[in-house]
Amino acid sequence: MIKIKKYSYLLLAVYVSLQIAACSNTNKKDGQSENTEASAGTISATDPQNTVVLSKEQYQAIKIKTGKAEPRNLSAAIQVNGKLEVPPQNAVSITVPYGGIVKATTLLEGKRVTKGERLVTLENPEFIQLQQDYLDSKSQLEFLTTEYNRQQELSAQNINAKKTVQKAKADYWGAQNSVRGLQAKLSLLNINVNTLEKNGIQNSVSIYSPINGFVTQVNVNRGTYVSPNDMMFRIVNSDNVYVELDVFEKDFPKLKLGQIVRFSLANDSASHTAKIYLIGKEIDKDRSIPVNCRITGTVNQAMVPGMYLKASIETGSNQVTALPEKAVVDFGGKSYIFLPENESADQKAKNYPFRMVEIQTGVTENSYTEVILPQGFGAQTEIVIDGAYDLLSKMKNSAEEE
Predict the structure, then answer these.
(1) What CATH class has 89-236?
(2) What confidence tens digit (pLDDT) does each residue in 140-163 have?
(3) Is 158 left (phi over 0), alpha (psi -120 to 50) or beta?
(4) Where exactly are the structural domains of the chain?
């Protein structure tokens, strides 16, 4: 009986040991599986510790070259968008203060007009009434002027009362103000009162162009009723077209009057130049500042107001830390460089490891790119300046194979 109990305890101990070992192996396999899954797939663009190892043959085939970041003078430039505009005095919206029916017009969009050219003829009984009221008031003013002068003469001889003179004076000034008011209203309709008094009432009025330019909008035709202040036409003189840029507030401190701006139009690949002459002093809702630039070259027919453009503002030459453009690789929307690792056990096996490090970039000019390196980088840090994209390609392939 004692022997049976002894064997039972022994079998139980062995069973427990086997279960512990099995659990240990399972955990180990699970850990290995997790590590394998973590290392598989594509490269993480946010992990700057990614490394790639080249064999001696691969290293010689790629012809890796290393160098150091160095200070260089690069022209800083701000890339912005904008459009062509004209000064307010070069764009006119043709309206009338009184409504009317369009009797005649020959305008079409794109037609060139000159200052003083007839644009449209309007008809409205109100125009006739205004002219009639003016002529009546003018006649009344002539009568009241004579009456006022007569009353003044009688007053000088103490024949009439002062109250009568004052009444004649008030009537005279009232009639004079009425005539002046009607005269101002008629001038808004381009009716000359001298012509009106000589030739009589006209049943239509004509509107004339106040500037030279091109018709860009036509909103009426013959028979259209135009309400007061409705825009009938828009005329633009593009001789003084200028560039209006939208510069974000972060670049505002870099702006100065007189800076050179190079721009190109959507319909023209040629480069044009301008100079900044006005900088806005208030930030718009989209966090941008308007900047106005005068075109320094010839304004050609392709420069139409309202046309969008891309521009580069030259903010001067600054000494920055730079690398050859091909030393910087883009991956996952970020910029990276490769560093050769220090000699290690891998080096004895004729392997060449490289580490990918994330950096910030700035302006690019003449095949050099401004770089902002992480803290701890010294002036003697070796950086791959030729073959960086080959290393990135090798790293991607290695990740896919795993």
Answers:
(1) mainly beta
(2) 999 999 988 988 888 888 877 888
(3) left
(4) 51-75+319-401, 78-86+240-315, 89-236
